[in-house]
Amino acid sequence: MSEQLTLYFSKISRYSHKVELALIEANAPYTAYQVDLDNKPEWFTSKVNPVGEVPAVTYGGPNVNPDDPSPLSAKIAESNVILEFLVDLHPDSGLMPNDLVLRAKVRFFIDATTKYIEGMYFPFIEGNESFENVLKGIEFIQGLLEEGRDFAVGDHYTIADACITPHLARLKIVTETDIGSFPVGMGYKLGEELKGAKFTKFKKYAERMLGRPSLKQTCDEEAITGYLKRFLRAQF
Fold first, then answer.
1. Pairwise CA distance, residues 52 & 47, whole Å
2. Which SS3 state, helix, strand or coil, does residue 125 take?
3. What is the pLDDT of residues 205-214, one digit of tens each?
């Protein structure tokens, strides 16, 4: 019998989202507990993650209620650390290729996602990054995608896909709703640019990832949209 694993997450957290996706794609058993980020319980920081951030997991120890985690369970935080833990925990899941070169490519793709997608589009939403630089970041990522492949790296869904998909989901919301502190209409304009022939490979990849059952099961567009509106009001 496998050890228990409990995921502490939030539907509005893009970092939680990638761990959710990986768990579902790996068909891994787990218990989920959603943490209210606006009213975090004291026990979460004292018993799960002293930093107070999601995602976090408890692993092993007795099966207990998630709101009363056992001191006998291991506590693991930081989304990419958790993803690597899941790779080791489920080596036959396909979340990481066996080939050493492909494993390196997965990690490079994750790093590129942080720099060129997350590092560009979220500042763009805040009004601190140019429209042109967002497109350059997407173009860089597109260059990593191989023709004829369904996934970011290799022939199977990996943690590289899990890392970028939450950002693709949020990018879709921004381009469809124009939510952001950029000039009015820039979100829509970004969406129109991404429909052009120049970004066909990226668009098709994004559509495949956003069409997967794991994304549909985990993406709460209403909650994410509400969070973006609240976040921007608080910032400005």
1. 10
2. helix
3. 999 999 999 9
